[in-house]
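Field reference: "sequence" (input) and "structure" (output). Example, Peptidase C45 acyl-coenzyme A--6-aminopenicillanic acid acyl-transferase:
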Amino acid sequence: MQLSVLSGSRGEIGEAHGHAHAALITHSLEVYDRLFHDFVGIGWAEACTAAEAFLPMIERGFPAILEEMDGIARGAGLDFADILTLNCRSEISLTQASGGCTAFSLERDGTQWLAQNWDWRTDQLHNVVALELHPGDAPALVSIGEAGMVAKIGMNDRGLGVCLNAIRSRTCGEGLPIHVALRKILESPDLDRAVRVATHDRVCSPAHFLLASRDGQATGFEVHPGLPGRLPPHAGTVTHTNHLVAETATCQVEDFPRPDSRSRLTRLDRLLHERLPLGTPIDEAALFGLLADHDNAPMSICRHFNPQQPPEERMETLFAVVMNLSEGRLTLRHGKPCESADSLTIRLPPG
């Protein structure tokens, strides 16, 4: 996978994104057209109508990003409604379909690490893109995600990083759509400002955002339209899969996790304790090794396609990311971390 480096105004960045990845964006629309039909019984036109409900929330909470969405549409030769709908896909579809994803932060010997697998539908594997953005009015940032979407998992040049875990729930209310909120976090100049996205702007539908900064701070936020649940570090780590944990969240939101969410979390906690005790040298290879774990396969941390599962549960690991926030370095393995050591390493000098 190649890195797309984009700079300029928001409209210019969007147009360059759309032009560079037009074919992938169009394919993403086809993937989500099928997903909306399969899981919520609506076609693309109906999904676009549903996405219009989120436009006023974005206009209130992050109006500048709309210019970039419009640029993506222009560059890809699509309608603005298509890009808006793509960026609201979680709010439209996650009432029925949830991804996998296993994420953790780790602080050791003055270095802050952040890592995760992203598990999703197989047909999105080749629509993953790596973007390095240099907007004129915000910190430089790296986002690993889906073509046509404004952000997903990444870091910025202020030493701030974010990971994402999907949460399946019927809750949806006022706030920013998940992927728009992730982009606003990545544009935050510091951790306090990033936290305000979860606590002040709020997020339309439930998800888990794992925030960390190069100065060794990390907290998990189980976001939703109400007050988010907070998960502080324990022995320098925060871990999460796809179910709600914090009482602040569970008392407000009902979730419907995949059967393997709790077992993956238990396995991840055990691996961190057994393989990386205090004093153990840590590098990207060691953390990718955790993300490549196959215990309890096929419902393992590293997930492979399993045709014996129901169609809505057929997810696989599409990429793995390890971030060294202290050194401003993100390493990506596209596909399953067990299958290839080939990686893309991106460095952001401190801003």
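Residues 98-347 form a domain with the Penicillin V Acylase; Chain A fold (CATH 3.60.60.10).
The chain has twelve helices and 14 strands.
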